[in-house]
């Protein structure tokens, strides 16, 4: 009995010593691994968001957004807004508001506030006549900030007086469309000499005198 007692005590002491040594060994290994991971994390480069200089304006699902310093900001609610165009000379934004039957061009502030309607393509009051409705897309302002250019589904270029909010000119089929294109290029400060030359040649072909047939 005494021998068994001492044997049990010896086994318990051995188990205790073995457990303590195993705990200390594994703890030391864990600290070494944590230090290695920390040193690797500090030395590796961190991923950074790609940022663009200035502000980018875009449309999605009928709303206008601005992208600045890597962040998107919603400027308008989802209500048919599209084709934003930054007017640097006026320090504001041009945008098209589209409805099921017509669209109009508006001036919008940098933070989404509507300041002015530049076109009037909707029907007269108490009228649902769709033939009186028109479309305006791809708006551009002239250097004087008072002349607006837009195009529509009818393949015409329309010129608007911003102060009066009225259409002043309309350019349609050839050769008027060439003349309208030249005016739009000039409004953007771009070279329109090639288009103007094509316009003169088109009119020259139209000035040919046709003689009667001999038959």
SSE diagram, text form:
Blueprint: H1 2-43, E1 55-60, E2 63-68, E3 71-74, E4 81-87, E5 92-98, E6 103-108, E7 114-117, E8 137-141, E9 147-151, E10 157-161, E11 166-171, H2 176-187, H3 193-206
Antiparallel strand pairs: 1-2, 2-3, 4-5, 5-6, 6-7, 8-9, 9-10, 10-11
Helix pairs in contact: 2-3
So how many helices? 3
Global outline: elongated
Strands, total number: 11
Structural class: alpha+beta
Strand and helix order:
HEEEEEEEEEEEHH
**Terminal Cα span:** 144 Å
Rg to the nearest angstrom?
A: 37 Å
Compute the average pLDDT. Answer: 75
Q: Which band does the percent of strand residues land in? A: 25-35%
Walk across the major sheet and give the strand order: 4-5-6-7
Q: Descriptors for this entry?
A:
single chain, 215 residues, alpha+beta, 4-stranded antiparallel sheet, 3 helices, disordered C terminus
Description:
The longest helix has 42 residues, at 2-43. The chain is of the alpha+beta class and 215 residues long. Helix 2 packs antiparallel against helix 3. The N and C termini lie far apart (144 Å). The protein has a domain at 55-140. A four-stranded antiparallel beta sheet has the order 4-5-6-7, with no helix packed on it. Strands 8-9-10-11 form a four-stranded antiparallel beta sheet, with helices on one face. It has a three-stranded antiparallel beta sheet with strand order 1-2-3, with no helix packed on it. The protein has three helices and eleven strands. It is elongated.
